[in-house]
Design brief:
The chain is of the alpha+beta class and 307 residues long. The protein folds into three domains: 77 residues, no CATH class; 88 residues, no CATH class; 123 residues, no CATH class. Helix content is 34%, strand content 28%. The protein has a seven-stranded antiparallel β-sheet with strand order 9-8-10-12-11-13-14. It is elongated and about 75 Å long. It starts with a helix and ends in a 5-residue tail after the last strand.
Length: 307
């Protein structure tokens, strides 16, 4: 294999390694820096770095080419490279092996994750996604590893599986309709990481009167559970309780909170809270969004301006 061919194959092997062995492979950028001069010597460089980081780990493909010519394989070269971080947990190793087994094996574990578009441009460059119409959120796709962990479907994974974003969406959306999604009520309890919902007994979808002293939420019982707002059954249940127009805001990536259309006091109080959260620079990657949304006639839109 000639050097230029080797260099291309080395970059492919690096991408595969990151995909299968890093907890958040979508955050990594692997780029060919090209020739540079250091200490009066010309050196070829490949850089591996996290999106947003100014610096990363450098690989000298010329040096590795000599290793390859001496009999080492590309996989051996990449696996032995000292730039890699710590050993992955066993559940991620298992997921990596399953990902390699293909789309048919993994599609039942595919789930929707809502994500703030403008605040996650670096991440969205590396994953298949789509924007939700009329709001500032988009959809990306996660693979459920276990009850407490998941990993993003990157463009490289989708290419490996030979599936389009449309196929990912249709599969994940159908999976969401079959998920156990919850409509619940409770009290918001202040905490060091923001307010938490302490739930009362699970609500039925009909026959209860609205209690302005309680907070209401929908969620899927898994990571990134706020995606439950796209579950037809749970939102139909919420409509039967609230009416056909509902105000919503994400408590975090796990819960989507609901406010009755006529509860003006709570709506105004929440808008103040969201403005304060925005002014404080709240991390929308964890809190999803600092916006208020409107659910009406089965569609989401962004609440613009004061009510």
């Amino acid at each position: 294999m000639r050097y230029e061919e080797f260099k291309e194959e080395l970059m492919k092997e690096l991408r595969t390694y990151v995909l299968l062995h890093e907890e958040h492979p979508e955050e990594y950028i692997i780029e060919d820096i090209g020739k540079s001069y250091k200490n009066n010597m010309e050196t070829d460089t490949i850089c591996v770095r996290r999106a947003g980081d100014g610096a990363g780990k450098s690989v000298n493909p010329e040096k590795e080419y000599e290793e390859y010519r001496s009999g080492r394989t590309l996989r051996e070269i990449v696996e032995d490279w000292p730039g890699w971080r710590t050993e992955l947990p066993e559940n991620y190793k298992k997921a990596a092996k399953e990902i390699e087994q293909g789309w048919e094996r993994m599609k039942e574990k595919l789930m929707i994750r809502l994500i703030h578009v403008d605040q996650n441009r670096h991440l969205l460059q590396r994953v298949p996604w789509r924007k939700l119409e009329h709001i500032d959120l988009g959809i990306m796709y996660q693979i459920q590893i276990d009850a407490d962990s998941s990993t993003a479907v990157t463009r490289l994974i989708a290419k490996m599986w030979n599936v389009t974003e449309e196929e990912l969406y249709q599969t994940a959306y159908q999976n969401l309709q079959e998920e156990e999604c919850v409509f619940s009520a409770g009290e918001l309890i202040p905490g060091p990481e923001g307010p938490q919902l302490r739930e009362t007994e699970p609500l039925k979808t009909e026959g209860f009167l609205y209690n302005p002293k309680l907070w209401y939420a929908v969620y899927a019982d898994r990571l990134f559970g706020a995606a439950a707002v796209l579950n037809r059954k749970v939102m139909k249940g919420a409509e039967s309780f609230f009416g056909r127009k509902i105000f919503l805001f994400p408590l975090n990536t796990e819960r989507m909170m609901l406010i009755h259309e006529e509860d003006h006091r709570l709506l105004e109080k929440t808008l103040v809270y969201l403005r304060e959260r925005q002014e404080e620079g709240a991390d929308v990657e964890n809190e999803l969004s600092n916006s208020m949304y409107v659910w009406e006639e089965g569609k989401l839109s962004l609440l613009k301006g004061p009510k």
